[in-house]
Specification:
Elements lengths: L1 E3 L14 E10 H11 L9 H6 L9 H8 L1 H7 L5 E8 L10 E14 L4 E10 L2 E12 L15
Antiparallel strand pairs: 1-2, 2-4, 3-6, 4-5, 5-6
Pfam family, one: MaoC_dehydratas
Family: Belongs to the enoyl-CoA hydratase/isomerase family.
Organism: Brachybacterium ginsengisoli
């Protein structure tokens, strides 16, 4: 996986339009086998071209939950504290065909889409593509923003 930027995001200073992460993940048949073993999802459309094609797919495809989980990893790295993620949702818009040899690149960009100061949250929009084709739609994570001190100061307990 390739991730930028390297510096952690300051959740107290986010701005709408700010790019938090840009990642590239290589997905191969080996990736699918490892995921199937970890998840218990041994549906043959994820390892058998003939079965996948009989199901109307272009061939073996990546697991949807593998795609969803992989898509958020760059954001998790950028925010450092994964407990800040309060919600994450997406729609699967296109399957990711995985070649028999080599790999395919899943490219993900995470950008701050909205900030709700009253709720203390930020919405991060994720764009996930393979070869320019969008594979996730409405991929969004809601982050809890750090609470500001009640008196507005950065220090508490100072005498």
């Amino acid at each position: 996986m390739t991730t930028t930027p390297a510096a952690p995001a300051d959740l107290s200073a986010l701005t709408v339009g700010q790019e938090l992460a840009r990642t590239r993940h290589e997905v191969s048949r080996d990736t699918l086998v490892r995921y199937a073993g970890a998840s218990g999802d041994f549906n043959p459309i994820h390892y058998n071209d003939a079965v996948a094609e009989q199901a109307g797919l272009p061939g073996v495809i990546a697991h949807g939950m593998l795609t969803m989980g992989t898509a958020i990893t760059g954001l998790l790295d950028a925010i450092v504290d994964p407990t800040a993620v309060r919600a994450y949702s997406t729609r699967f818009t296109n399957p990711i065909p995985v070649p028999a040899t080599g790999s395919v690149a899943l490219e993900v960009v995470a950008v701050v889409g909205a900030i709700d100061e009253a709720a203390g949250t930020a919405r991060v929009d994720l764009t996930a593509q393979v070869d320019g084709t969008k594979v996730l739609g409405r991929a969004r994570a809601t982050l809890a923003l750090p609470a500001a001190p009640a008196d507005g100061s950065a220090e508490q307990g100072a005498a």
